Amino acid sequence: MVWTPRVTVAAIIERDGAFLMIEEHTNDGVRLSQPAGHLEPGESLVEAAIRETMEETAHPFTPSGWMGTYLWCIGSDPRRDDTYLRFTFVGSVGEPCNRALDPDVVRAFWITADELRARRPEHRSPLVMRCIDDYLAMQASGNGWLPLSTQHTEPFSAAAR
């Protein structure tokens, strides 16, 4: 068996003390999450975050920094259970576009960290609140996030395969 983590991206978007979140249908019912999703073939991590935010919120996302990388295993054996490697970006959004959201998304909405914390049983994963708490801690400490220039994607080439 080959172990392959699932590579995902997420966007942390804060405006006036509230965070842009989504409610979406999952196998466990309707859950809350940041705009997030899987990296697709041929994309950079930044491109994936921009695409996923548009698909799930209808807002154009402008990333301004890279917040961190998170590893989460569902289950107790990472060799057999699902493992997610999440790259999290921060940024801002423009006004929503007139487009349908992904079929599983119920709605996109703004919520404060305290309101989100009170709804912890509805979170899609433990990464939802962890990323918000990390964002707030970085903001409070003044340490901030890494510049987007620290993310590198080599051009795709047949010779590299």
From TrEMBL:
Co-factor requirement: Mg(2+)
Protein name per Swiss-Prot or TrEMBL: Phosphatase NudJ
Domain of life where this protein originates: Bacteria
Subunit structure: Monomer.
SUPFAM superfamilies per UniProt: Nudix (SSF55811)
Domain Nudix hydrolase positions: 4-133
Membership in a protein family: Belongs to the Nudix hydrolase family. NudJ subfamily.
